[in-house]
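Recall the central idea of this unit: under ordinary conditions, the amino acid sequence of a chain determines the structure it adopts. In this exercise we apply that idea directly, starting from the sequence alone.
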Amino acid sequence: MAFGALKTNKSRSFLTILGIVIGITAIMIMMSLGQGAQDLILNQVQGLGSKTIIVIPGREPKGPADSAQVFSDSLRERDLEALSKKENVPTLERIVPVVFGGATGGYENETYRLTIFGASEEMADLFQLSPEVGSFITADDVRARTSVVVIGSKVKQELFGESDAVGKKIKIKNRTFTVVGVLTQKGQVSFFNFDEVAIVPYTVAQSYIFGIKHFHRFMIEAESEDLISTTVADIKTTLRFEHDIKSPDKDDFFVQTQADLAKTIGSITGVLKAFLVAVTAISLVVGGVGIMNIMLVTVTERTREIGLRKAVGATRRDILVQFLAEAVVLTGVGGVIGIILGVSLAYIGSQILASYIGSPWPFSLPIGATTISICVSTAVGLVFGLYPARQAARKSPIEALRYE
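Accordingly, the structure predicted from this sequence is:
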């Protein structure tokens, strides 16, 4: 009976469920793309390797007041030497000091905005980088402050086109660097696209590009995953001794493992995703109000029908269930359409984003969101359909039959 009543007014029924369709579609898109973004970020973070530990200068930010601490210069050469000693951190496999920033690289009439990495020769092993042609920077380059550079595949294409790059010279911050290698196409690793980088010895980057004496990061690899906690403890002990820190509350550095970073990012993206879903859920309330209004109009239009049904024996409960069923059917159908439309648009959106950022954007179909959408759309029908249904059930059969 509910389906039959709705089929007689197809246009009205479609317009009534439109609010629910839009609301559920928006929720599915937000949940799917949000989960895809979270998976993408976590995959990039985990791309550093599960044994990687990052030492960052400054006090660990606990709130907005601590944000300035991130720009601290607390990591120095003496810290690098101390951490490199086996007696201080026995489980350390390798340590890579890193400085980074942006600069423009130029070759003849071509220029390109680069991400500059100042690092040691160990960076190739840590990030699993291999030159397609040429070689990587060496320990001798670091000690001698040799002006050599290894460039990413995109940098090579932008500056040199199809011609060979190795042996040619590019200018960075008015200093000439000799290209000694071109990296194999690597793409995004963690937060950096290695196709767009220029890697130079950190001693050269500190002195001639950035003009600093400190480091932005220490990238450390433990001997095994089981030894990560031991390695972290030894790192903290060593740095506290070097900085004459007696209490952990006074640390001018903080240490992050990949598990810590993944947990933090997961929490942030989870809160953001929940906020976006909450905002889009407002459209469901709007759709529910629309259904209630249409149902009230329908009750008024079908007054004689209600009177006739009551005259032949229908109870208040029968009328209540009938109109409540119509509201639930409307929202249920709207929910199903919204899920199908939302999943389809989310898939298309993930493909567009993947092509735009040049990296695979994982398409995710959150089963939980599908279940929640069905439940919520049904609940909207029950809540907003209850009042019109009760109004219909309360009508007097005699007055209803007289209604014109």
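The chain is about 55% helix and 20% strand.
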